[in-house]
From TrEMBL:
Residues 64-74 have a biased composition (Basic residues). Signal peptide: none annotated. Keywords: Hydrolase, Metalloprotease, Protease, Zinc. Belongs to the peptidase M14 family. One of its GO terms (cellular component) is extracellular space. One of its GO terms (molecular function) is metallocarboxypeptidase activity. Residues 106-341 form the Peptidase M14 domain. This is Peptidase M14 domain-containing protein. InterPro entries: Peptidase_M14. It comes from Nocardioides silvaticus. Its cofactor is Zn(2+).
């Protein structure tokens, strides 16, 4: 209870906050009504039970060590090529290209050349290949995840709005979800981890718990701005995400927060941190929770799983164009993934 509060608790109006460093109290913004409307939209369509891609069908884990691309790395020279866990010219890709070429040569008046090679779940969201409700919040709101991509690359998860008063980075994930089909990656997006907090414009969930202190790794009984709950995984949102991560086991996780404007250096793979910072045009900095991070999602995942989870912080008010246009493209570039033209 004591150690985090000593240097972690800072005046609420101070902008220095780490993902969890301080309870940032942000004044009401004009974006709120729009955010609420978007939340309603996210909550709108019923979940599908269909699973067009078999779970982890791509054998990402174990195909190559997560230090796999080591041979590409030269001392002192950051890697230029995207992080991938499958070769570019796998037989499957070549076969797919040949099949696609064959299809295109056959007259097919109603077929679009840009059609993805997977069934569409949602005509309005051609990038989506699977969608799930992974659980519900304290107030019963669904926590939704969408799967994008053609599954030909590494399994990646993007998470946003774990803290309800950090709503802007959701737009990166929503833009990827709502845009053109994506290839070269097996990508999950979870735009709204804390739907109750988003509606209430609070960092914490509806029971006043900081979800990023509620994970069962170095959990401590914290009070105040980092209220960690009565026990590890006490919150339904935490349990939902734990179940989901155990199931999907992403090779890479980016956990988006605000407003520190930095990529954390505290991860299992420093090259990953460097690559993400360079791709997203953000500085790197150790985001230390003012000492020891207790009960954080990234800490838990990095300790328990083979994949690497990394905290990415944008500023307090990142430009909308950056969130909706620039950053989505930059995120895909980390793994060499692209959108269909
Ligand atoms: Zn945060």
């Amino acid at each position: 209870m004591g150690e985090d509060r000593g240097d972690g608790e800072r005046p609420a109006d101070r902008q220095q906050h780490r993902d969890g460093l301080a309870g940032l109290v942000r004044p009401a913004s004009a974006d709120r009504q729009r955010q609420d409307a978007e939340q309603v939209r996210e909550d709108g369509p019923p979940p599908s039970t269909g699973r067009p891609l078999t779970r982890r069908a791509h054998g990402i884990q174990g195909r190559r060590g997560w230090h796999g691309p080591r041979r590409r790395i030269h001392a002192g020279t950051p890697p230029r090529r995207p992080l991938r866990s499958t070769p570019r010219e796998s037989p499957l890709r070549i076969l797919t290209a040949l099949l696609l070429a064959t299809v295109l040569l056959v007259p097919a008046p109603t077929t679009s050349a840009a059609a993805p090679d997977h069934p569409q779940l949602d005509p309005d969201r051609p990038a989506v290949v699977e969608k799930r409700v992974i659980g519900r919040s304290v107030r019963g709101r669904p926590i939704r995840a969408w799967r994008l991509g053609d599954g030909s690359g590494p399994t990646v998860l993007l998470i946003s709005t774990m803290h309800g008063d950090e709503p802007h980075t959701r737009r990166i994930l929503q833009s990827l979800r709502d845009g053109r089909p994506i290839r070269g990656i097996d990508l999950w997006v979870l735009p709204t981890y804390n739907p109750d907090g988003l509606v209430r414009h609070t960092r914490k969930n509806a029971r006043g718990v900081d979800l990023n202190r509620n994970f069962p790794w170095r959990w401590a009984d914290l009070d105040g701005p980092y209220e960690s709950g009565p026990r590890p995984r006490s919150e339904p949102e935490t349990r939902a995400v734990i179940r989901f991560l155990r199931d999907v086991r992403p090779r890479w996780i980016l956990s988006f927060h605000q407003p520190l404007h930095a990529v954390d250096t505290d991860t299992k793979d420093r090259r990953f941190s460097r690559r993400v910072a360079r791709a997203l045009d953000l500085p790197r900095r150790a985001l230390t929770c003012g000492g020891v991070c207790h009960g954080t999602m990234t800490g838990w995942y990095n300790h328990r799983f083979r994949g690497a989870a990394l905290t990415v912080e944008y500023g307090a008010r990142p430009p909308r164009r950056r969130m909706e246009k620039t950053a989505p493209r930059q995120v895909l570039s980390i793994w060499g993934a692209t959108r269909h033209r």
